């Protein structure tokens, strides 16, 4: 196993690639990995011999074509115009995915598939998520280099000259959280909720199959050159049980895995591959993993904090962090750093749809679970003593002794966020902020970022506050949060509407031409279809089961309190799910609105449905507790 090939490095020559593949006959298949606008990756099995014989055609995109109408390229690749070409992306690493359940008996090695990141081309235009990020970064780089060429001295970056900046490097990293359990294990929500509140799980010892799977995953990541930094238990979970054979069962706990940053496109590819790796390794150990943002209501969800950095390569070859100031104990950031966070926050309404585009993702963003709900940042109490506020949307991460580590952590992302498109929107917004900030001093920018709501500013909006060093959950009421930091969207429809309601901010993320109107409209159409379908086919049926399970309990001793509780419960049950000739239930009205594409009405009804379901569950819990 030690002589397996795990990675073909970025920018390898065709000759080197062919040579390595011929040395490793256990790699029997090729799979072109295109990323649609929902973040789904394609996977197919192309015999290796086809690739070896026609490698030039793979680079050109003519070797493989796919049915674009079958992936999320909504209103772009249609049934009567579905042809999509798939040229390979040679600028990133190519990973080999080994099937540990299928060995070549002669070679005594597992059979591998070379997964090659690829673009999707429709009518001669790149229409995929990887292309959106790649082309956006090219535009942002060009614009930033132009700014530095015109600005010799930048506040906070006095140790370099603008004319010495030769290249811009975009860095990113993600932190993967996931729930793991044994198949068919039922979650004990009250027990795990209590354990979470009492902080019994975070960084606790892993045991049994979970420990083995975690260790195997980290070792596999090392083999792939992904440089894992840590794997540990997260805040959620419960103690597993041990069967008669000494094996752990009824496992249900939360895990996080972190690894080193990379350039932004490679970071998105790495995340995609690690998710696959985690699934396969844990499955081999008899465990299921769940990457959903909120797999269990009432417990901590799965986040994927996304780290965003930016560096400059000088003509001398030296690389400097553009967010770090010359004097780390004097300033929080350089003016470029201030512009970056200001651009991100000011334009977040049109970034949020790409970060949180599903019912599941918005279920996670609720008060009380350390998930961000407000468009606000934290820098720390003073430059000389870095601190971290975990209640805000995007925080400054810095280390006085390591200027290269300065970055922002966006805490709203989840494992199914389309990182490619989200990063494209983020870096576009950063560019917008830097265009303003590069001509300001760090003191001026700190004052503007720290302004109170109602204060007129040069770039940030008058009626908003953007910085808080307080606990956003505990130190503000909901009314205060809504007033200071804006009202967060409650539904997918509300979130996607921001792309229509804020045309000036939309223009910021479309400026580069890659995340263009065609792509945004296709993304929105695809997400609305998913939103509509999930409510009708999954959420409402699941809620019907809950409503049906809330039955009147027979008892020899029923008090007036029991009768009152049941009457109230039954009233909610009927309101939610019982139709009459004259009146339709909330479920029926919601389905009707969705089927008629009356999404504004459907959005309001979805909010009401959630509120009524929570009220029903709470009332029924109290009702059962009183029925002795």
From TrEMBL:
Family: Belongs to the glutamine synthetase family.
Classification via Gene3D superfamilies: Glutamine synthetase/guanido kinase, catalytic domain
Alphabetical list of InterPro entries matching this protein: Gln_synth/guanido_kin_cat_dom, Gln_synth_cat_dom
GO molecular function: glutamine synthetase activity
Superkingdom assignment: Bacteria
EC number of this enzyme: 6.3.1.2
Protein's name according to its UniProt entry: glutamine synthetase
Stretches assigned to the GS catalytic domain: 149-550
UniProtKB keywords: Ligase
Native organism: Pectinatus haikarae
């Amino acid at each position: 196993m030690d002589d397996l090939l795990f990675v073909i490095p970025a920018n390898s020559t065709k000759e080197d690639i062919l040579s390595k593949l011929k040395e490793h006959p256990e790699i029997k298949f090729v799979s072109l990995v295109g990323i649609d606008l929902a973040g789904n990756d394609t996977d197919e099995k192309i015999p290796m011999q086809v690739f070896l014989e026609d490698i030039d055609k793979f680079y050109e995109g003519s070797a493989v074509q796919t049915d674009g109408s079958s992936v999320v390229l909504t209103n772009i690749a249609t049934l009567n115009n579905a042809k999509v070409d798939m040229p390979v992306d040679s600028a990133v690493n190519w990973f080999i995915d080994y099937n540990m359940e299928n060995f070549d008996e002669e070679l005594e090695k597992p059979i591998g598939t070379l997964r090659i990141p690829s673009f999707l081309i429709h009518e001669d235009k790149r229409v995929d998520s990887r292309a959106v990020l790649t082309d956006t970064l090219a535009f942002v780089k060009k614009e930033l280099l132009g700014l530095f060429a015109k600005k010799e001295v930048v506040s906070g970056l006095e140790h370099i000259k603008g004319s010495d900046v030769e290249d811009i490097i975009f860095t990113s990293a993600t932190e993967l959280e996931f729930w793991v359990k044994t198949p068919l294990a039922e979650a004990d929500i009250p027990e795990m909720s209590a354990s979470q509140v009492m902080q019994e799980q975070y960084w606790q010892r892993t045991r049994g199959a979970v420990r083995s799977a975690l260790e195997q995953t980290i070792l596999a990541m090392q083999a792939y050159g992904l440089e894992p930094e840590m794997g540990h238990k997260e805040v959620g979970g419960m103690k597993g049980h041990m069967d008669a054979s000494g094996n752990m069962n009824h496992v249900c706990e939360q895990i996080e895995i972190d690894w080193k940053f990379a350039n932004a496109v490679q970071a998105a590819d790495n995340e995609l591959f690690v998710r696959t790796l985690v699934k396969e390794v844990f499955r081999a150990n008899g465990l299921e993993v769940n990457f959903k943002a909120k797999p269990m209501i009432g417990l901590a969800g799965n986040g994927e904090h996304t780290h965003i950095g930016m560096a400059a390569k000088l003509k001398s070859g030296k690389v400097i962090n553009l967010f770090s100031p010359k004097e780390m104990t004097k300033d929080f950031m350089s003016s470029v750093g201030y512009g970056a966070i200001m651009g991100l926050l000011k334009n977040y309404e049109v970034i949020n749809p790409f970060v949180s585009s599903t019912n599941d993702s918005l279920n996670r963003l609720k008060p009380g679970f350390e998930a961000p709900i407000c468009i606000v940042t934290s820098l720390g109490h003073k430059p000389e003593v870095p601190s971290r506020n975990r209640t805000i949307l995007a925080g400054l991460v810095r280390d006085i002794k390591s200027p290269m580590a300065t970055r922002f952590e966006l805490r709203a992302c989840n494992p199914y966020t389309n990182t490619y498109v989200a990063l494209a929107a983020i870096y576009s917004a950063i560019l917008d902020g830097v265009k303003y900030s590069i001509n300001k001093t760090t003191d001026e920018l700190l004052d503007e970022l720290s302004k109170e709501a109602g204060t007129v500013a040069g770039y940030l909006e008058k009626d908003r506050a953007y910085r808080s060093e307080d606990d956003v959950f505990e130190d503000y009421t909901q009314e205060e949060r809504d007033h200071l930091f804006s009202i967060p969207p409650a539904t997918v429809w509300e979130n996607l509407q921001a792309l229509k309601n804020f045309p000036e901010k939309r223009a910021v993320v479309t400026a580069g031409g890659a995340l263009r109107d065609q792509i945004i409209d296709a993304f929105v159409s695809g997400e609305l279809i998913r939103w509509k379908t999930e409510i009708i086919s999954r959420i409402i049926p699941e809620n019907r089961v809950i409503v049906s399970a809330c039955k009147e309990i027979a008892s020899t001793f029923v008090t007036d309190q029991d009768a009152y509780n049941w009457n109230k419960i039954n009233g909610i049950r009927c309101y939610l799910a019982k139709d009459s000739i004259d009146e339709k239930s909330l479920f029926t009205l919601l389905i009707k609105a969705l089927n008629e594409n009356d999404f504004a009405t459907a959005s309001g009804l979805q909010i009401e449905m959630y509120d009524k379901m929570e009220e029903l569950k709470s009332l029924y819990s109290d009702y059962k507790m009183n029925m002795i």
